[in-house]
Amino acid sequence: MTRRSIRKRVAIVTATAVVAVGTVAAGAAVAGPSWGESKRPTEKQVAGLFDNWNEALRTGDPEKVADLYASDAVLLPTVSNKVRADRAAIVDYFEHFLENKPVGKKIETHVNVLDRNSALDAGVYQFTLTDPETGEKSVVKARYTYEYEKRGGEWLIVNHHSSKMPEG
After folding, report:
1. Residue 162 has pLDDT above 70, yes or no
2. pLDDT at residue 20 above 60?
3. Comparing 35 with 137, which gets the higher pLDDT?
4. Distance of alpha carbon 127 from alpha carbon 138, whole angstroms
5. In which band, very low, low, confident or very high, does the pLDDT at 28 lie, cut at 50, 70 and 90?
C-alpha cells in the first residue's frame, strides 16, 4: 500500500468518524433487532465488539488481537507514532503494547450502524497499564474510532484510530 493510499484511507476514516459522531449526537436511531445475516446489528452488539477485543488483549497474545483485524486494516495506535497498515505491523504494535498488560474500559461510546455489514464505534476509553519492570500502574485516556465490516460472516476491524487525550 502506498503512502498516498494510506493517507487517503486515514482521511476517509477520520471524516467518516466525524460524521458518525455527529449523526449519533443528532439522535439517529439505526439499530436493528437481530445480529442475523440479513439484519442490521444493534448498537449494543456493535459496542460489544470492543469487549471481544479487550478480551483478546487479556490473553497477552498479539496474534489473537491481530485476528480481530481485517488483512487490509489500518491501525493508528495510541502509544506509537507509526501507522500500522498490514498484519505484521499490527502484530508488532501489540507485541509491545501487551507487555504493559493493558486493561481497557470504555468511558463514552457512540455507535453508528451504517448497514448490516458495517458500523462505527467512536468515543473515549482508558487503559490501565502495568509497567513490566516496576509493576507500577498508570492510566492512559484516549479517543478512539473503530470501523467494523462483516466479511465472510465475521465482524472485523478495518480501521482503528486511538490517540491520547490532548489534555493529558
Report:
1. yes
2. no
3. 137
4. 8
5. very low
